Amino acid sequence: MTIKKANKTDKQEIQVLMDELNEYRKNIFSNDTKDFHERINPYKKLEDDDFENSIFFVAKDASNNVIGFIQGTIHERKNHKLHNLGYIDELFVKESFRGKGVAKNLFTELETEFKKQNCDSLTTHTDIENDLSANLYLKSGMKKTTIEFWKKL
Predict the structure, then answer these.
(1) pTM exceeding the 0.70 threshold for the entire prediction
(2) Residue 145 domain-assigned?
(3) Distance from C-alpha of 125 to C-alpha of 138, rounded to nearest angstrom
């Protein structure tokens, strides 16, 4: 497995994984939260400018196929002590490659890139049902900081 910074030439393979990620999400939502997550329109497809506005890394197998990716963006938080925020937008690894350190390596690459770009903190969110993600982030040294509440009216 190799990790490399992604570019527009990886767009199609990343899109396939993003589609898998969105299907995965649908399958983990509980009956209690399904309405909250349900979308009217499908997720937006990747575009070339996404590679200019985001940081992507991909994991590739021995045959040079993309088996996982991570996408991050940098945000300025005005009026906060920690104000240059690296945010993990998406992280996904093909099911057959999970548990082999792929996600951890992708996380580490993005974290290193955020440090190079003078980010002073790293954040993300995950769905309450996504124990796989939550465990990865906790094992990577992240702390729980907020809880989002929802009620259908």
Answers:
(1) yes
(2) no
(3) 12
Encoded tokens for 84: 């240059």
Q: Tens digit of pLDDT for each residue in 37-52?
A: 887 777 889 999 999 9
Residue 34 clears pLDDT 90, i.e. is over it: no
What gap in Å lies between CA 77 and CA 91, rounded to an integer? 22
Determine the Cα–Cα distance for residues 153 and 145; give it in Å rounded to an integer.
26
Query: In this structure, is residue 55 part of a structural domain?
Result: yes
DSSP states of 27-65 as a string? HH--TTTHHHH--SSPPPPP-TTHHHHSEEEEEE-TTS-
Given a contact cutoff of 8 angstroms between Cβ atoms, the answer to whether 88 and 130 are in contact is no
- Look at residue 20 and tell me if it is in a domain: yes
CATH at 42: 3.40.630.30
